[in-house]
Amino acid sequence: MKNSLLVGVVCAMLCCLGGCNGNSGKEDMGDLFPAQVLMESGCFAYGYINIAGDFVIPPHFFEATDFDEGLASVRFNEWRYGFIDKNGKVVIDDLPDESVFSEGLARIWADELKWGFIDKTGKFVIEPRFDDAWNFSEGMAAVEMDDKWGFIDKTGKFVIEPRFDDAWNFSEGMARVKVGDKWGFIDKKGDVVIDLRFDGADSFAEGMAVVRMGDKWGFIDKKGDVVIEPRFDWAKSFTEGLAAVLVGDNWGFIDEKGEVVIEPRFDGADSFAEGMAAVEMEDRWGFIDKTGDVVIDIRFAWVEPFKNGLAMVKFKGKHILGYVNKKGKVVYEGEM
After folding, report:
1. Which of 191, 196, 226, 323 sits most deeply, having the most CB atoms within 10 A of its CB?
2. What is the domain partition of the chain in residue ranges?
3. In sequence order, which residues have a C-beta less than 8 Å from that of residue 213 and are 6 or more positions away?
């Protein structure tokens, strides 16, 4: 399963159908979801449905992604990407790849594969000069220059000079960074506030961070103290008060005290979102609630977490993608 889905291109020769200017006369229809249609040619086209499963933006894109900050990255043909608004109107065109807006800016690579940032008009406000870059979070973005990572502000100025071998964005006031083969955490001044002593680490979420010590995973607080001993074979960040953990070959969930609240019995598990978590058993996926009860049957080839009331699913034996609501009802099953 992917943590975030880019709805992939399936047929490289598909052309835009009915033009790519959308339905500029329509009003904002609320939450929209990328959905695919199988064309007579055997290729897929992508548009956007509402929560009822009805198309609001007709399917005529090669690829489509979720809306963030009012815009969605879409692919018009083999070489051309851009952004549309919720009326389907193209607001940014002629980009080389997909992206996503975060805090008003989107990272884009340009000539010589250098990364910069555009605003919502498509104008570069931070010129492409970085070897790699993450999106903005908490006012800063991690960027790479000459094999070292640092952090810039929204003017493109370095506020933390590149000196780390790896780095991720700020979350809850701290960013995880790597020097050599050890991870630790810095504050927004660039000072190391949690020593680089971990073999692996994830970002802070709900006041704790997942860390690896040796071959086991546990959790630390913002002082760097171990609050849940490293005893898991893998662990994911806390969401909605629970964290997915791997014990042997099985996934379960713990609470913030480290107590097992859903016994490890699943072949796979994702984090909780909107009150439910995706779980896998015998190569099928479904959803459980916070008591561990299966609330949406484990019958799909794979699923994405719930977002804005719907979850994307792939039906077993079918190539097309659909959506279910929180009651498990299929609201979109894919069309031909």
Report:
1. 323
2. 1-95, 235-336
3. 198, 199, 230
